[in-house]
Amino acid sequence: MTAIGQTTDKGDTAGDISSHVAEQLVHLARLVHGGSSDQCLTPAQWTALRYFARANRFSRTPSAFSEFHATTRGTASQTVKSLIALGFLERHANKSDGRSALIEVTPAGHEKLKDDPLSALTRAIALLPADERGRFATVVSVLASTMARSRTAPIFGNCGECGHCDTTGGGPAYCRCTQSLLNQDDMSALCVDFLPAPPNLR
Ligand code: SF4
């Protein structure tokens, strides 16, 4: 590993390479929406629509989305309201928390997601050789965790890699955080209460 300030064989410092990669990542994120032929939703609206389609039943709330999108609750709430007005999201009563609404993607919202501009990047990643794709996934996950810790923001993940997930009972997995049995859909969904499990327990 080359530390910031150390020089590589090519004469670059780790700082040079790191800042170039950081700029490339930001550029990549801009390209996702910048070149899209479908400009009818803003990047924030796409992020919200995608989030509510992927989040589990404990995380489909405007406040969990505000944490995921690293924005204020007021801004997140406005984004959600705009998607409800467009007919892509709908608000339901939240049986487990009367103070918060549960947000669901409507059939029109799921149809809209077929035009998701992120699909182009998803396809580009899928074209990588399997071993490179696996290493890339690990690196991105480590970077996301490091950034979330530095911003004291939650780390989003799914049950399969969560320290709260108990699979020792032989039956369905159990979430020790929400004290609920987990179904198959929960296992791969995004969760605001995710706690990374120690690597030796994954
Ligand atoms: S096990 Fe972890 S990721 Fe799954 S629902 Fe519980 S807190 Fe969320």
Question: Would you kindly provide a written description of the structure presented here, covering whatever features stand out?
Answer:
By secondary structure, the protein is mainly alpha-helical. The protein has a domain at 10-127: Winged helix-like DNA-binding domain superfamily/Winged helix DNA-binding domain (Arc Repressor Mutant, subunit A). It contains 8 helices and 5 strands. It has helices at residues 14-34, 43-54, 62-68, 73-85, 107-112, 118-126, 130-150, 184-187; strands at 89-93, 101-105, 165-166, 174-175, 180-181. The strands form 2 sheets. The chain has a 3-stranded antiparallel sheet, with no helix packed on it. A hairpin with a 7-residue loop joins strand 1 (89-93) and strand 2. Helix 2 crosses helix 4 (73-85) and helix 3 (62-68) packs across helix 4 (73-85). The model has no long low-confidence stretch (mean pLDDT 88). The structure holds iron/sulfur cluster. The site of iron/sulfur cluster (SF4) has 14 residues, from loops.
